[in-house]
Specification:
The protein is mostly helical. The chain contains 22 helices and six strands.
Length: about 450
């Protein structure tokens, strides 16, 4: 199988297009199918509708299944409409059950039922089982294409079985041992199987200490578990330990990307609006609730400034440093928020706990505050000729940064304790809260020292 480099891809793509235009079915099939599945997908995506129709003619439905399951869901929806019914049914029969379930979960129920009714009963039943599990759980992302063996099998028996059933399985690097009631009792790696004597029983080479996943486990926890143990796959079981599927590392990579995108959306207050293919109206509709909420917080900020109107009238120069105080508070809080959310996602914050986090972030804020205060106390007298102004701005920034880091770090921790997604402590929310706090500190100190100006 050939894997194209970036340099070769465009040249080879033109070559493939020429084969299609020349209607050279034999040569196209030979050279196209010799490519890596990802390269086939990328070349296919670059084709126009007329050229894609030739691909469906030159490539079997079973072969096209590899290309289809590599495509993004939105592209899959478009391509599915181009396929003849029999061709599509055969394609879905040759796809992994979890990939079919992902696709059917994104289309109308009536269309999904039509596709399921056109598939082989056994394949359709596997897909229906996956669709029956709640979204974002192990059961929903697992695949049914795995190899299960018996403890009484010999190594030679299993090797023979792999030759027959291996091509249909999503992975064969781990083989799961089940009893007569399909309950998980052990696991054998392909490596251990190959180096064992051909007459050795599976029960003598298997490990009975199996790390398994319950079907209702959240997909993010599944990803953490597979990452923790560096698994290529993990077995999924029912509450009675019956083996029902596996989750593979490629599924986990998709989960991690999905969760990272979701967390990014939460932190930046654009949850559900990170899809670049969404329309402007859809994007605005999903962003507007946070923007409106933050607008009301902005009114509070304006109210704080209005409360200290007399102080501003006395010393107009104080207004110059309002943006500096607000920006510094917001930026510091957002940094602490990002560290906390990332720490919770990786599990590293669990080691030091809430108070350990508060202590560390307070120390960080104090050091940042001291550095910034010293810099300002040197620059402000030089630029504005006022030592008292330098002291007010410097000491205000010191307290603001010290407290902002605590707020940025502890809010997501508290939310996490409430069993909610810590990422909902969005950056704009933390920034606005810290802006208000920074202004209160700044004007309170300035007002108390007004007679020294």
């Amino acid at each position: 199988m050939v894997r194209l480099t970036e340099h070769d891809r465009e040249e080879y793509m033109n070559y493939i297009l020429e084969l299609l235009k020349d209607n050279n079915e034999k040569k196209f099939h030979e050279d196209f199918m010799d490519l890596h599945a990802t390269d086939r997908m990328e070349i296919f995506q670059s084709l126009d509708k007329e050229s894609r129709q030739l691909v469906y003619k030159f490539v079997t439905a079973a072969e096209f299944a590899e290309i289809f399951q590599e495509l993004e869901i939105d592209t899959q929806k478009e391509i599915a409409l181009e396929l003849e019914e029999d061709y599509a049914a055969e394609m879905f029969n040759n796809m992994y059950a979890d990939d079919v379930a992902d696709f059917l979960g994104e289309i109308k129920d009536t269309e999904a039922k039509e596709i399921l009714s056109s598939m082989d009963k056994e394949d359709a039943d596997d897909v229906k089982e996956l669709l029956s599990y709640p979204p974002e759980t192990a059961g929903a992302i697992m695949t049914k294409e795995y190899i299960a063996i018996r403890a009484t099998n010999t190594a030679a028996d299993v090797i023979t079985m792999l030759r027959q059933e291996g091509p249909e399985a999503e992975t064969i690097y781990y083989l799961y041992v089940v009893d007569t009631k399909d309950k998980l009792v052990g696991v054998v790696s392909l490596r251990d199987l190959i180096i064992a004597q051909s007459t050795e029983l599976v029960e003598n080479i298997m490990s009975s200490r199996v790390v398994s996943i319950e079907a209702n486990m959240d997909q993010e926890d599944v990803a953490k578990l597979i990452k923790k143990y560096d698994f290529l796959a993990a077995p999924v079981v029912t509450s009675t330990n019956e083996l029902i599927g596996i989750v593979t590392v490629d599924d986990v990579m998709d989960v991690l990307e999905e969760e990272a995108t979701e967390d990014l959306g939460e932190i930046s207050a654009v949850r559900g609006a990170t899809d670049v293919n969404a329309s402007a109206f859809t994007s605005a509709k999903k962003r507007s609730p946070w923007i409106i909420l933050l607008m009301f917080f902005g009114l509070i900020t304006a109210g704080v400034i209005g409360t200290f109107e007399e102080t501003l009238e006395e010393i107009v120069l104080l207004a110059v440093f309002i943006p500096l105080i607000m920006d510094s508070a917001g930026n510091t809080g957002t940094q602490a928020l990002a560290v906390a959310v990332r720490g919770l996602a990786t599990g590293s914050l669990e080691k030091i706990g809430l108070w350990g986090t508060v202590k560390r972030e307070l120390g960080t804020g104090i050091y940042l505050g001291i550095i910034c205060a010293v810099v300002l106390m040197i620059l402000i007298p030089f630029i504005y000729g006022s030592y008292i102004l330098a002291f007010v701005v410097g000491i205000s920034l010191f307290f603001t940064l010290s407290i902002s880091t605590i707020i940025g770090a502890t809010v997501p921790l508290i939310i996490n304790k409430l069993k909610l997604d810590p990422a909902i402590a969005s950056g704009p929310f933390i920034t606005t809260v810290n802006d208000i706090l920074g202004l209160v500190i700044y004007f309170s100190i300035a007002t108390s020292l007004l007679h020294y100006f």
